[in-house]
Structures are given as structure tokens and as C-alpha cells.
């Protein structure tokens, strides 16, 4: 140490200055871990370990709340006893209103938990589902490299409502979303057929996944053309037929009207987003029609102005076999795929007739991407974090109030404004491969 101090004195640097410089370097590196997306895998690994312990603590310390689990078990028990008429399957909360994929998955949980009696085991299974869902989400964020890693601390450890939906309420919404995120990962790997299969499976668990469908259709048209995307759509349709076949053979009308009921009325007392409206307006058919028109208009505007790829408009309506094949998409296109899918779902949520508390999981894990996918300055980080906090506060206000529902719509409106006015992530196509025997002109160009 004395020799080092003598060396510092000879160089004109004081020991305190050298120590301060070292501390500054360490702080800069720490800031880089929190701010640079390339450190997302490291932060994700640490958060997944922390989430494993946190979920175990929640299961053991926080009392379980019964809402729909017993009703789920009663509904699938009827199928286990041989009932194939969908109109006869019901539980304590009413008739079964989910497609057939829900029946098969929760039938497996029914047998694994001793006919639904072992609640603690079911909670552990849903904790595993939570970690799997988190890994799939982190993989999407690693591929897109848009969100600073410090935001994931808010996404993981700061959400009481999401942990409650997974391990304290045991809803079917997390099951559908986990399958959906697996499908998105397959899309990012250019495995579109498998992705469409998993997407359809997610729809068969709960219909809210259809909010991603307009964005998926747009991507399929761009990637494969009008005729080329037909086989992918057939995969989605065929899986629905196969899963619902036992019920379709017995009572097809009953199955379709129960599992895909788009006109179902929601109770005003459970709404999170429309509490500031009078109940008669909330139940009005005219109000529902206005929301549907707003949803369609939003999708049309985003498809024309925000999802559109420059120079690719002719490929959208080109037949799959007409003309040369489209070039493969680069990794930068991952951002475009995720942007289209997540914004399609978000538009549907903004125009939803009602949002219940368990519906928070429909878009919670997509919010960081929606907020940070457009270019931002350092000063813009804090307002975005504040938006996340206000949205979380709105979803944790029970029962919802006029102020909480209005605040939720204001936050949604600000996110929509940013998605519309910001710079959407643009894909970069792979450059064409040079031929083995380039001409003189091509050599000169190179």
C-alpha cells in the first residue's frame, strides 16, 4: 500500500481521487446493468430466483381466497362423469362458458389435486406456471431489446394483484396467457405453424386471446401473402374442431353458444374500467356497439399507419405462390412482431365492455414493452414508471371507484397516444445473398 501511495504521488494523483474514480467506474457499471437491455438475461435470472421464493412465501403466509376454483372443478367433473352436452356442464357460479381446451387442462388439474380438494398442491402448480410464464415473457424481452432491465423489478416484485391471480385465486386466465406467450416465442423463431397451433390452444382456454388475432392475421398476411396464410388459419380452425368434437357431436349449437358467446352480459358491480358510467349506460346495447366500432376503427388505423411496413404493401395481398418468395425476416423484426401483437391486444382492452380484476393478467406483462418500445429520452423514464404505478394502483382498488376507473382510462389513453405518435419499431430485411459468380458490375458495386 505504501509503494502504491508513493506511485500515486509521483503520478500526481491522490489516493482519494483514485478511490473515487474506482467507485465511479463501479457505479457506471451498475447503472449499465439497470439501464442497458443487453443485461436483461442477467437481471431476469436474478428475478426468477427471487420470484420462486416470493411465491412460496405468498402461498404459505397469505390465506387462499376461493372464487372460481371449485366451480371449475364442478364443471370438469361433469365431463369426467360422461356428460357431453355442454349446456349441462355447470358449477357453483353458473354454466360453463369456456371452450373445450379449458375442460381438458383443468380436468388434468382435477385428477392431479384429488378432485380439486388439494388446494395447496394446486397453488404450487400455479406457482410453477407463474415462473414458466415469467421465463417466456423474459425471453420475448431478450429478443426485442427494448426495455431497460430496471423496469422488470416493477413487473415482478411490485405487483400484488398478479401474484394473487396466479397463486391465491387459481383463475384460468394465467393458463391461457402462458400458452399465448409460448406461441409468441414460436413466432419469433419463425415457427409459424407451431405458433398458430399454440395460439389456437390458448383461445380454447379463454376467448380473450382473440384480442391478439387481428395482429396475428396482419403478420400472417405480410409474411405469407393472402393464399400463403390460409394453411396457418386452417391449423387454428382445425384444432378448435378437434378439441370440441366430443361436444359438437352431441349438441353443436349448445357448445358454440356457450363457449363462444360474444354477447354475454357482465355485472356492473365487478367492472374495473367503467365504474364512472351509470349502470343503464353500461348495460346499453348502443354503448357496446360504440365500443365495437371504436375497436374496429383503432385496428384499421394502426394497421394502416403503425403496423404497415414500407415497401411491403404489395406483398400483403399477393398470393402465396405468385412471384418470388419473400426474403426471411431478420432478428430486428422480432420487435415488429411483438409490437403488432401487443398493441392489437391493448386496443381490444381499451375498448373492452368490462374488465374484471383477473383480467389484469391479459396485458400486465406487455405494459413495459408498450411503454418503452418507442424511442425515449432519459427524462421520459420517470413518467412511464409513474404510469405503471398508477395502473397498478387502479387494479388494486377494490371495489373500483369513479376516480380509479377514470385514472385507468387516462393511463390507457396516454399509452395509446405514445404508441400512435412515437416511432414504431421497423424491421430490417436480410440483404440478398450475392451469387457465387458475381458480374463485373456487382463487383464494382460491392
Automatic annotation (TrEMBL):
Organism: Urocolius indicus
Lineage top rank: taxon: Eukaryota
InterPro entries referenced in this protein's UniProt entry, alphabetically: Glycosyltransferase_ALG3
UniProt pathway annotation: Protein modification; protein glycosylation
Keywords, sorted A to Z: Endoplasmic reticulum, Glycosyltransferase, Membrane, Transferase, Transmembrane, Transmembrane helix
Chief localisation class: endoplasmic reticulum
Cellular compartments per GO CC: endoplasmic reticulum membrane
Gene Ontology MF annotations: dol-P-Man:Man(5)GlcNAc(2)-PP-Dol alpha-1,3-mannosyltransferase activity
Pfam families: ALG3
Transmembrane segments: 96-112, 124-141, 170-188, 194-221, 233-250, 286-304
Catalyzed reactions: an alpha-D-Man-(1->2)-alpha-D-Man-(1->2)-alpha-D-Man-(1->3)-[alpha-D-Man-(1->6)]-beta-D-Man-(1->4)-beta-D-GlcNAc-(1->4)-alpha-D-GlcNAc-diphospho-di-trans,poly-cis-dolichol + a di-trans,poly-cis-dolichyl beta-D-mannosyl phosphate = an alpha-D-Man-(1->2)-alpha-D-Man-(1->2)-alpha-D-Man-(1->3)-[alpha-D-Man-(1->3)-alpha-D-Man-(1->6)]-beta-D-Man-(1->4)-beta-D-GlcNAc-(1->4)-alpha-D-GlcNAc-diphospho-di-trans,poly-cis-dolichol + a di-trans,poly-cis-dolichyl phosphate + H(+)
Entry's localization field: Endoplasmic reticulum membrane
EC number(s) from the headed UniProt entry: 2.4.1.258
Keyword Transmembrane attached: yes
PANTHER family assigned: DOL-P-MAN:MAN(5)GLCNAC(2)-PP-DOL ALPHA-1,3-MANNOSYLTRANSFERASE (PTHR12646:SF0), NOT56 - RELATED (PTHR12646)
Primary enzyme class: transferase
Keyword hit for DNA-binding: no
Purpose of the protein: Dol-P-Man:Man(5)GlcNAc(2)-PP-Dol alpha-1,3-mannosyltransferase that operates in the biosynthetic pathway of dolichol-linked oligosaccharides, the glycan precursors employed in protein asparagine (N)-glycosylation. The assembly of dolichol-linked oligosaccharides begins on the cytosolic side of the endoplasmic reticulum membrane and finishes in its lumen. The sequential addition of sugars to dolichol pyrophosphate produces dolichol-linked oligosaccharides containing fourteen sugars, including two GlcNAcs, nine mannoses and three glucoses.
Protein name as annotated: Dol-P-Man:Man(5)GlcNAc(2)-PP-Dol alpha-1,3-mannosyltransferase
Amino acid at each position: 500500500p505504501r509503494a502504491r501511495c508513493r506511485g500515486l504521488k509521483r503520478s500526481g494523483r491522490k489516493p482519494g481521487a483514485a478511490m473515487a474514480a474506482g467507485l465511479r467506474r463501479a457505479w457506471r457499471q451498475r447503472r449499465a446493468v439497470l439501464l442497458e437491455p443487453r443485461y436483461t438475461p442477467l437481471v431476469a435470472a436474478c428475478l426468477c430466483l427471487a420470484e420462486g421464493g416470493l411465491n412460496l412465501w405468498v402461498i404459505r403466509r397469505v390465506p387462499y381466497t376461493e372464487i372460481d376454483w371449485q366451480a371449475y372443478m364442478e364443471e370438469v367433473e361433469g365431463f369426467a362423469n360422461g356428460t357431453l352436452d355442454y349446456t349441462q356442464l355447470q358449477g357453483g357460479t353458473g354454466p360453463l362458458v369456456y371452450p373445450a381446451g379449458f375442460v381438458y387442462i383443468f380436468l388434468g388439474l382435477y385428477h392431479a389435486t384429488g378432485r380439486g380438494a388439494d388446494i395447496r398442491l394446486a397453488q404450487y402448480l400455479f406457482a410453477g406456471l407463474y415462473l414458466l410464464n415469467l421465463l417466456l415473457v423474459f425471453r420475448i424481452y431478450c429478443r426485442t431489446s427494448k426495455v431497460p432491465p430496471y423496469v422488470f423489478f416493477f413487473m415482478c416484485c411490485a405487483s400484488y394483484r398478479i401474484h394473487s391471480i396466479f397463486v391465491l385465486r387459481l383463475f384460468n386466465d394465467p393458463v391461457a396467457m402462458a400458452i399465448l406467450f409460448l406461441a409468441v416465442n414460436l413466432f419469433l423463431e419463425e415457427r409459424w405453424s407451431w405458433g398458430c397451433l399454440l395460439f389456437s390452444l390458448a383461445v380454447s382456454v379463454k376467448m380473450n386471446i382473440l384480442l391478439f388475432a387481428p395482429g396475428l392475421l396482419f403478420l400472417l398476411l405480410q409474411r405469407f401473402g393472402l393464399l400463403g396464410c390460409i394453411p396457418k388459419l386452417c391449423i387454428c380452425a382445425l384444432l378448435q374442431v378437434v378439441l370440441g368434437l366430443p361436444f359438437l357431436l352431441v349438441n353443436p349449437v349448445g357448445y358454440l353458444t356457450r363457449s363462444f358467446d360474444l354477447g354475454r352480459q357482465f355485472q356492473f358491480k365487478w367492472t374495473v374500467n367503467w365504474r364512472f358510467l351509470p349502470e343503464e349506460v353500461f348495460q346499453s346495447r348502443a354503448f357496446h356497439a360504440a365500443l365495437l366500432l371504436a375497436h374496429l376503427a383503432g385496428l384499421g388505423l394502426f394497421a394502416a399507419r403503425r403496423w404497415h411496413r414500407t415497401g411491403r404493401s404489395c406483398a400483403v395481398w399477393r398470393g402465396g405462390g405468385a412471384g418470388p418468395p419473400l426474403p426471411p425476416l431478420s432478428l430486428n423484426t422480432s420487435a415488429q412482431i411483438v409490437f403488432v401483437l401487443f398493441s392489437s391486444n391493448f386496443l381490444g382492452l381499451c375498448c373492452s365492455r368490462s374488465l374484471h380484476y383477473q383480467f389484469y393478467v391479459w396485458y400486465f406483462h406487455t405494459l413495459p414493452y408498450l411503454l418503452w418500445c418507442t424511442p425515449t429520452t432519459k427524462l421520459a423514464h420517470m413518467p412511464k414508471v409513474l404510469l405503471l404505478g398508477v395502473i397498478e394502483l387502479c387494479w388494486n382498488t377494490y371495489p373500483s371507484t369513479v376516480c380509479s376507473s377514470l385514472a385507468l382510462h387516462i393511463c390507457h389513453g396516454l399509452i395509446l397516444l405514445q404508441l400512435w405518435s412515437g416511432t414504431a419499431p421497423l424491421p430490417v430485411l436480410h440483404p440478398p445473398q450475392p451469387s457465387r459468380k458475381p458480374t463485373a458490375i456487382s463487383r464494382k458495386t460491392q
